[in-house]
Design a protein that fits this description.
The complex is a heterodimer of chains A (84) and B (605). With 84 residues, chain A is an alpha+beta fold. Chain A contains 2 helices and 5 strands, in the order βαβαβββ. In chain B, a hairpin with a 3-residue loop joins β10 and β11. The chains are: A alpha+beta (84), B alpha+beta (605).
Chain lengths: 84, 605
């Protein structure tokens, strides 16, 4: 059971700050599940340059969409963002 | 010459003499504008070892070729002087509307020198420049100063850049403010104005910037503006949540400096995030001149019907870095700091130094008397000490010297989290090592915006780089960021355009405005020249690279204690020699003569 955290516009789209998700092996499966659940708007928001972290580490530096999700993992999902 | 008026006003406050000087396209092509013009004048005209608060220091208000045009974000100005905080170059950038107004008044740059006998302000109405008595506004805060001067000037469209009590009282991190809450913030440049008895500059310009091909320029501007509007960050996240959208991002990535960089994870980040600010306090957005992004926040909190900010940096400096979690107090403190005319980052950094000195027992309650204790998370510290700093009252007099000098006074130099005596901004480089190299080599000391490596290392623009990669690719990216940033600054644009634009876009805008046919590489060469010239000034001012191109020991020797970057330090010793070499510098961090010649800088030796 992984904890999925949403930020910025994703909170408006999902109506949540976080939720627990069961039965997904990796990020690819998680994203399929979330897109099925929250639809095109969710997918569109993440189309360009989304940031996905597993326990604070960017999946691009782990195994990208094949990054495995273990029990107790925290997955943080951000739409494209910047500042300074 | 297009994009420039070719005109500089030299204003001597000691003699009252005002003269007009001209410059030609050769100077424009060599230096582009703002920082470029500024470093050229500093190297030519002041002794780099001059006391920054003496009449012999000069302060320059500079614009770029795109300042005052319709180019997206084309309203920036920069103030360049020798910093009383670092002892090296200060170049502080601000948005709002002052820069564009100065340019539209017909001036590319003001050189202010000497020292007035009594408080004065400079009044500029197009060509006409006067030095006027400011005794009636001396002592006033920024908002009141702006109001009084605009009323006296008799034109509500006039723009003011002024100092508050902090600048008058020579606080080493005093800022220059315009439009109430826009700050040319860093390096203590407000104290330089104060040392010259210069309270403010008010300007109204009714002219325009001549362009090589107006039709072509407008079509390029439309194209680039659309690019920014369609960008998910510049046209989405930034306008919606402001810069504080970064609070959660940086905290989740484990590099949100907490309690004076003791940790990179703040347990209350959510409560002071951009999302929380938008939900609880946001009234509306407020864009600067010609800005399609509009990241500025107008907030309402408590008795403050309207205030602006805080930005991400200020939210952090007055929040997580002090262990404070009350966003309302942070917003109020930010408002107060702006009105008193100080840099929020250095104010917060100095308070954080005091908190750690107190925590480890080097600063004792008896040193403070009845004043509030510097305990982590104590919001009373914000309410009490900020005013004391600006007026140099009680312990505030010591805080007004900045974190470095404070730590030294109490024998705890290792608790100062800064570089070259300037307090660090809101990213713990143990979670972004290239950004750490940026801090160590920044010409103005502890600073994030002269090469924002958080972009590639964390956010993924223009490419995503591993934050713990320290290969030559990373070092080269830092060098490219330093040079490109110098170009964007010199052009008169905002760095937030980099979220949607790339080097070729700036080339297109500049070439269309100026009628030049330079390549992106040509512009990058100008950026490299500016960076090296600033370094040359610092070396002449006495910079010791071995001791000062460095980071606080905590960041290079103490592994991050928790979070995603647990166990990491910044491997600066491995990166720094590579940086020097890839810059074409000597192994000791000085610049070889051949390099200076290649960059046409040998005349400044």
């Amino acid at each position: 059971m992984a904890l999925v955290k949403y930020f910025a516009t994703l909170r408006e789209i999902t109506g949540k700050r976080e939720e627990t998700v069961r039965g997904v092996k990796n990020i690819k499966e998680l994203m399929q599940l979330l897109i099925n659940r929250y639809g095109d708007k969710f997918a569109k928001e993440l189309r360009d340059r989304a940031m996905i972290l597993v326990n604070g580490k960017n999946i691009l530096h782990i195994r990208d969409m094949d990054t495995e999700i273990e029990e107790e993992d925290v997955v943080s999902i951000f739409p494209p963002a910047g500042g300074g | 010459m297009y994009g420039y008026h070719g005109k500089i006003a030299r204003i001597n406050l000691s003699t009252g003499k005002i003269s007009v000087e001209k410059f030609d396209e050769k100077m424009a092509k060599k230096w582009l504008g703002t920082r470029g013009f500024g470093i050229h004048v500093l190297l030519k005209e002041i002794d780099p070892k001059v006391d920054p608060l003496s009449p012999e220091n000069k302060i320059l208000y500079t614009t770029g070729p795109l300042t005052g045009t319709a180019a997206p974000t084309g309203g920036r100005y920069m103030v360049i002087t020798k910093s009383p905080l670092t002892g090296y170059i200060a170049m502080a950038n601000s948005g709002g509307f002052f820069g564009a107004e100065l340019k539209l008044a017909g001036w590319d740059m003001l050189i202010v020198e000497g020292k007035a006998e009594k408080p004065v302000y400079i009044s500029i109405r197009n060509e006409e420049i006067e030095i006027k008595d400011a005794s009636h506004v001396w002592g006033k805060r920024v908002s009141e100063t702006e109001k009084i001067l605009i009323e006296e000037f008799g034109d509500k469209h006039a723009q003011v850049a002024s100092i508050g009590p902090a600048g008058e009282n020579l606080v080493r991190f005093a800022a220059i403010m315009n439009n109430g809450h826009r700050a040319a913030g860093r390096g203590g440049i407000g104290a330089v104005m104060g040392s010259k008895n210069l309270k403010a500059i008010i300007v109204r310009g009714r002219g325009r910037v001549e362009l090589a091909d107006r039709q072509k320029f407008i079509s390029v501007v439309k194209e680039k503006t659309n690019k920014l509007k369609n960008d998910p960050v510049a046209g989405g996240g930034l306008p919606k949540y402001g810069t504080a959208v970064l609070v959660n991002i940086i905290n989740q990535n484990g590099l949100y400096p907490t309690r004076n960089f003791r940790s990179g994870v703040f347990e209350y980040a959510e409560e002071q995030s951009g999302e929380a600010m938008a939900a609880k306090y946001l009234k509306r957005n407020k864009p600067c001149y010609a800005c399609p992004i509009g990241c500025g926040r107008v907030n309402r909190v408590g008795v403050l019907e309207e205030t602006e900010g805080p930005e991400y940096e200020s939210t952090w400096a007055l929040g997580a870095n002090l262990g404070i979690n009350d966003l309302a107090s942070i917003i109020e403190a930010n408002h107060l700091i702006d009105d008193l005319g100080m840099d929020t980052i250095s104010t917060g950094g100095t308070l954080a130094t005091a908190m750690e000195l107190y925590d480890v027992g080097l600063l004792k309650q008896e040193d403070l008397g009845d004043a509030p204790p510097f305990r982590w998370g104590n919001t009373e510290v914000l309410h009490y000490y900020i005013e004391k700093i600006a007026y140099r009252q009680g312990f505030g007099d010591k805080l007004a010297e900045g974190g470095y000098r404070l730590a030294k006074m109490y024998g705890g130099e290792e608790y100062f989290m800064g570089v070259k005596k300037q307090e660090l901004p809101a990213y713990d480089p143990r979670g972004a090592e290239g950004h750490g190299l940026g801090y160590a080599t920044d010409n103005r000391g502890g600073d994030h915006i002269k090469a924002y490596m958080i972009s590639p290392e964390i956010l993924g623009y223009p490419v995503k780089m591993d934050p713990h990669d320290i290969s030559d690719e990373k070092v080269k990216m830092l060098i490219a960021f330093q040079d490109l940033t110098a170009v964007i600054d010199a052009a008169g644009l905002c760095l937030f355009t980099t979220f949607g634009l790339v080097g070729d876009d700036y080339r297109d805008l500049l070439n269309a405005a100026l009628g030049w046919d330079l390549t992106t590489e040509d512009y990058m060469k100008i950026g490299e020249r500016i960076w090296n010239a600033e370094r040359l000034f610092n070396l002449k001012a006495g910079l010791n690279p071995r001791e000062e191109d460095t980071l606080p020991k905590r960041l290079t020797e103490e592994p991050m204690p928790e979070g995603p970057n647990k166990g990491h330090v910044v491997r600066l010793k491995e990166m720094l020699p590579r940086y020097y070499e890839l810059r074409g510098w000597n192994a000791d961090g000085t610049i070889p003569k051949e390099k200076l010649k290649e960059l046409e800088l040998d005349e400044y030796l």
